[in-house]
Amino acid sequence: MSIESTIDSQYDAYHQLSYEHEKTRREQQKELLEPLQRLSLDVNNALVNDKRTYENAKALFYQKFNLIKRVLTPAASKYKNSSLEPLKHLYHRRQDLASKVNELVNETTLESTSREVRTHWNGSIAVVYNPITGRAEWRQNWHGGIHGVFNPITRTVEWQDEVQTGVYGVFNPKLNIVEWKKFYQGGAHGVYNPSTGTIEWQTSFHSGIGGVYNPFTKQIEWKTCLKGGVVGYFDYESQTVKWIEKWHHGLALIVWDSTLNTYLTTASCGWYGDQ
User: Fold this and answer.
1) Would residue 275 count as lying in a domain?
2) Which one, of 251, 255, 61, lies nearest residue 145 by Cα?
3) How distant, in Å, are the alpha carbons of 191, 248, 271 from that of 161?
4) Phi, psi of 269 (to 5 degrees)
5) Which structural domain, as residue segments, surrounds residue 194?
6) How far apart (Å, rounded) are the C-alpha atoms in residues 36 and 6?
7) Helix 33-64 to helix 85-112 angle, to the nearest 10 degrees?
8) Where a domain ends, among 61, 91, 112?
9) Would you say 251 and 269 are in contact if contact means Cβ atoms under 8 Å apart?
10) Consecutive sets of 10 residues in the chain, 275 residues long: mean pLDDT of each?
C-alpha cells in the first residue's frame, strides 16, 4: 500500500469515527475510545516517519543545490517540485489529520466521563442534555446570559439569551411549561423541588448563583459567587452538595445521575460587569 493510499485510508477511518461520534448517545461514547486511540497511534507514528522523510529530503536538496543553483538553475526547481514538495504536502496533510484525530479523542474522552464542566470568560455558557438524541447541546453568550431547557412535552430544547442579564429556565412538570427568570447585571437560578412541587427562584446582583436539590434534606441548597460563576451537583457517595466556582466565567455542568439513570445539567448563566 502506498503512502498516499495509507493516509487516505486514515482519513476515511477518521471521518467514519467522527460520524459515529456525532450519532452515538453520550452514555455510549466509551465504545469509541479504543478505535479512536488506535487510529491516533497509527497517525502519530506515520507523522513521525513523514517528518523524518521530509527533513532528510530537504537536507539532501540543500546539499545538492547551493543558493546560486537554487536561484539560477531550472534543475533545482524541477527537483524540488518532483521530490520535495510531494513529501512536504504529505507531511502537512498528516499533521492536519493528527490534529483532527487528537481533537476527536479529547472530545470523546470528555463525553465518556461522568462529569464535564465547561467555562466561558466574561459571559455565559449553558448545556442541555437531549434524551431523544442522547446528545448534549452547548451554547455561549458573551457579555450576557444564556440558558436552555429540554421540554419533554414538545420534545425540543428551548433557549433564551439576554445582553448583560442573567437568564435561567426550569421545566415545571405540573404546568408542563418552561418557566423563565431574568435578572439584570447579575445571576438568576431556579430549581424544581419535588418535595413541595414548586420551583424555587433566587437572584444575585453582580454575582453568580447556583442551587441544588438535596434529596436527603428535601431542600434546595444555594451558593453565590461574587463576579463569578458557580454550579453544584449532589454527590451520592458523600451525600453532600459539591460546588464549582470560577471568577468572571460562566460555568456549565453535565453530570451522570446513577439514581435517575440520566444526565443532569446546570449552569451559572449571568453577567457580572466588566470590573
Assistant:
1) no
2) 251
3) 19, 18, 11
4) -110, 75
5) 115-268
6) 16
7) 160
8) 112
9) no
10) 76 97 96 97 97 94 82 82 91 97 97 95 94 96 94 97 94 96 94 96 94 96 94 95 94 94 93 66
